[in-house]
Amino acid sequence: MRRLDRSYLHYLDPKFISQLKGLDLIARMVVEGFLVGLHKSPYHGFSVEFAEHREYEPGDGLRYVDWKVFGKTDRYYVKVFEEETNLKAYLIVDRSGSMGFGPEGISKLEYVKYLASALSFLLLRQKDAVGLLLFSKKLDSYIAPSSRKNHLNILLRELNKLEPGGETSLSTVLFELAEKIKRRGLIILFSDLLDDYKSTVKALKIFRHKKNEVLVFHILDPTEVVFPYSKDMLFRDMETNEKITVDPKSIRKEYCEKMNNLIKSYKRDFRNNSIDYQFLRTDTAYDRALLSYLSKRRKMK
Amino acid sequence: MLHILHPFYLFGLLLAVIPLILHLLGRRRIREKPFSSIYLLKEMKKSTSVWLRIRELLLLLLRILFITFIIIAFSHPLVESPLSFLGKEAPRDVAILLDVSMSMGMEGVFEKAKNEVLRVFKTYNSSDRILLIAFSDRVEGIEEISDRTELIVFLNNLKVTYRATDLLPALGEAEKSLLQKEGFSKRVYIVSDFQKSGLKNVQSVSEGLGKKGIDVYAFPIERDEKNLFFSGYRIEPPFPLSGIRLKLFPELISREEGQNPIELFMNGVMKGAKKQTASRAKTVFEIEPLEAGYRSGFFRTGGDALAMDNSYYFSFYIPENLNVLLVGKTNEYYYLANALSPGLNSPIKLKTIAPEEFSRVNLGDYDLLILYNTKLNGSVKVRSMDFLANGGSVLIVMGNAFKSEINKDVLGGIHIERKMYTEKGFFRVKMVDVGFEPLSDFRDKGLKNLYDTKFFRYFRIESNMREVIKCKNGDPLMLTGNINKGKIVLLPFSIDPEWTQLPIKAIFVPLIYKLTFYLARKQERIPLFNVGAPIKLSFSKEVKEPLFITPDNRKKSPIPLKRMDEVNYILKDIDIPGIYRFVSQQGETIPVAVNTNVKESRLDAFSFEELKTLFPDIKKSEEVKTFTSSGKKWVDLFLFFIVLSLMCLIAELILENK
After folding, report:
1. What is the value of ipTM here, to two decimals?
2. Chain A: residue nearest B36 by CA?
3. Do A233 and B38 touch (CB under 8 A)?
4. Handedness of CA B643, B649, B652, B658 (dihedral sign)
5. What is the pTM of this model?
6. SS3 of A220, please?
7. Interior angle at CA A79, CA A77 and CA A84, nearest 5
8. CB distance from A230 to chain B under 8 Å?
9. Could you tell me which chain A residue has the CA closest to the CA of B656?
């Protein structure tokens, strides 16, 4: 494992991850890489932990027999694990056209795919039920939460075929979801939040109102943040196909200010409403996202 | 009013389309780029395409204005404005041509002209460039004037000259000077009486002035047209001889009413005073017989407004005796001998001998040898050649004694191929070379007489001699040449009514006299000269240390110019009329009369309308007053436009960085 330490860290790098194929592999690599890294971190994990041994009783599944102990003691013991809470996590992924933006690296949606895969893997590994909701203007796909072993494959398959498209109507979808999710759980939203700010916050507040824990991953491409264009550009909106001619030099400063203000506003308002918010650029390593999840998970314990 | 100093630069305004082209090309090059969401961009009002478009158009406009202003600046636009802070005051260029020819010497005229110059000067500012050119038939003085004191000093030093008017050199100088200047307003002011004779050649320059941006203004100085002057004089007999009374006829042109006085002075003594009543009346002065030699004097009149041409100078030569030897047969040279024997007082002393006596005569006693129908062979030829070699001259008159094929190459290098030409009918003279000295004094009547003369017979001569009279079929009737130091004249006919009408024509005697005096080398012709033209005296041999003494007793050395067999002595810069004395080391003094130009005395001025035929765009002096009385100044907007262009540049930089 030590030998693998360093190489696994690569799997937290979005750029590197994007070169791999197969979401299951990616998810595994990211999580493994993350957990290896954790050994050095103050987080000691909470996952499905070994609790104690007890003597085998008829009816126990053979796969729980601890054969090493049998080898040493010639007695049958089975491993008893600490049972997790029946947490239901909803991964809500914005798959609108704007999520397909990624001019110089991976797109926001690809970033989300890998992140969501890794989180699914992590969540399922600790027996949490994971559901997946994909939306653009409306709810496009819904996979009910489950903690079954093969559920990961279902999730990954769904994520794998995920393509950007359509306009965003974040607040509408969130209102719809709030109605749909009856049982409280963990709501994890992946979106660029490029929608009406007030209604977005308002919609997420409803989840909180229903006693759900909410974690928002605000994903943006670095280009959207620093606006590095210099020559005059004719920008086409990826959702509406609306066009606008812009002299980037003249508006960069104001644009960046507006974008930063938007991010700050989200951060402030989410904090005020006890919504965890994590701003992520598509060049940000995945560990930050996973850490924020873990942090959230600890709070929920 | 606006004026562009360098309008050619305005073609540079075409460069102003460059930003427009770049703008249009740049617009096409805007790339389309997908962007996640433009709602933030849309929120920024000024980032919208409308603002961008406005900004681009503003930038385009500023760039076009920048180039336009720069180009306009370098084309130096000048505006007539009282707002002098707009730029540097543009200097105007003017050349004032002040006439100082003799005709301006009439009482009060030159003062009027100077006052006009001062008046014009007042209308200019200290920044203007003023060139004053005084002119007669040349540029008398040229001065850049910057202040009034300088102008007054210059004008005070100016005097009217005796020279004639010729505007051309001064106009050429003014044109040259103005074209070198980079001014916007270029003017030539001509302050003159506009004497007609002085403006004949100006069209070559004047017509082009307008195209070159030079305006011409006329300041006509009015003056009286009345003037008294001498147009010349006549002397009788035409070949003044010693010992006989001479008659002198002054030709006074009078435009004055009443009686006009004429006085004759010779050697500083008044020889007579008369009054001429009518303009065409003849006045004659009879003078006592004079001894041989050079004589000079002058006529004087007075009482008119222009005094400078009231004297007329003359000089003439009274020859000493001329010894002429005529060789021939008595019955043949009858007409010629008679012509050469005018009377007892004639300076020509004629000796006639038969050809057989020729060898016994001492030729050294004679100035001229006339061989009349005498064969040029044997001793005649040898002695004639010796005579010529010693500077003597020979007149050969051919006749029946000459036959074909004989006498070829008769005299030295002169080749004579002759054949008598007779035909039914006659020939007249076709060409007379008045450049040949003995023929040069014949004018209309004399020449007509010669042209009317019929020739029935003559020898057709082929020679290398100069042919000075030719008949209609091109054959020479008089030939001349030089052998050694001597002169030779050949008449290829006999002076006989059977051969020609010449002996019975009026021109015969004067022609023979002229030829005789010319060949005998005793009469020095003294041409008349005018002020302004160089004096040129010709001598057959070099004169030692010659000098000219001017009428105001200044000594001047003439320039010697050797030409073929003679030496010309030339004295330039003849500015005053009077008797110039040519003095040589040999003690000879030749008086040379120099008079003012008759054309200048014949006062006749162009009216303003007539001036327009010479200067198509000429304006009157009154228009100068109108032009300058506005009180406005011409301001060069160069700096103004440079500032504007810089402002555009700064605005562009600011807008571009927004």
Report:
1. 0.76
2. A98
3. no
4. negative
5. 0.53
6. strand
7. 155
8. no
9. A250
